[in-house]
Amino acid sequence: MINFLIVTHGEFGAYLAEAAESIVGRQEEGVKVLSISPRVSVAELRERIRRAVAELGGADGLILFTDMPGGTPSNLAFPLVRSLPGVEMVTGVNLYMLVSAFSHRADTALPALVEKVLSDGQKSVCDVRRRFLARAG
């Protein structure tokens, strides 16, 4: 099973994970959330991410979700993704992406799950009027 590390500014990731679990069910293992706080040093944050990746990394792989490209969570995690095989990082995490990831983690290989999560995340961002109401006339 593919594991997930969710690293976000503040408690955003914790609330996303909680909301996703309320939709697809509790994830009993392989999911960890780290909240980035300005009250913790960059060195300590980097070490927390490194330890979490070491704890969660496994034979099936790990997807590291962050909230935005170029933000502190992404910048701190990126060196690990670059240096460790079987670790992928997806930025811009949203609720639909986590629901997709939680739903398909047991039966989808890492590269395919990354593509599925990215595709589902992009589908969830839309102009409702253009997407749904324009068709109705």
Care to describe what's here?
- The protein has 137 residues and is α/β, with parallel strands linked by helices.
- 53% of the residues lie in helices and 16% in strands.
- The protein has helices spanning 12-24, 42-56, 72-83, 95-104, 110-123, 128-136; strands at 3-9, 31-36, 62-66, 87-90.
- Helix 1 packs across helix 4 (95-104) and helix 4 (95-104) runs antiparallel to helix 5.
- The N and C termini lie far apart (44 Å).
Strand content: 15-25%
Strand order of the largest sheet: 2-1-3-4
Anisotropy-based shape: globular
Q: Which structural class do you get from the secondary structure elements?
A: alpha/beta
Mean pLDDT metric: 94
Characterize the largest beta sheet: strand count, sense, and whether it forms a barrel. Answer: 4 strands, parallel
Helix content: 40-55%
Compressed to H and E, one letter per element, the order equals: EHEHEHEHHH
Low-confidence stretches: none
Distance between the termini: 44 Å
Radius of gyration: 15 Å
How many strand elements?
Answer: 4
Alpha plus pi helix count: 6
